[in-house]
Amino acid sequence: MRGDRARHGQPRRVDYLLRYTDAFPIAVVEAKAEGEAAETGLEQAKGYARDLGVAFAYTTNGIEVLEREDLEMRVKLELENQGYSNRSKAKQE
Fold it and tell me: Rounded to the nearest 10 degrees, how much is the dihedral formed by the CA atoms of 13, 14, 17, 21?
């Protein structure tokens, strides 16, 4: 990941990247025009989320919002976070 750009073939730019902190992105949002169905952006949002390693993907047309949660990615991120926490505790002792 580089900033808010997904790298896979040709560079693509995420419409919105939601972050907990600058270094911790948590979700992508694909924005579609109001006249388009929100679901037309779901595959694109899922692809960005997969490429950027985030668990949540949203797509919206300003009226409707659809959410997709990647449970496998969420578990992976939680396990990595637990491992980091355990290493931090071991260093403190």
Answer: -30
Determine contact, residues 5/51, Cβ cutoff 8 Å: no
Name, in order, each residue with C-beta under 8 angstroms of 76's C-beta and a sequence gap of 6 or more: none
Q: Are 46 and 57 a contacting pair, CB within 8 Å?
A: yes
Beta carbons of 72 and 50 less than 8 angstroms apart: no
What would be the CATH architecture of the domain defined by 5-92? Alpha-Beta Complex (3.90)
Share of the chain above pLDDT 70, in %: 69
Q: Which backbone phi and psi does 87 adopt, to 5 degrees?
A: -65, -40
pTM of the model: 0.67
Domain map of the chain by residue range?
5-92
pLDDT per residue as tens digits for the range 12-43:
789 999 999 998 899 999 999 999 999 999 99
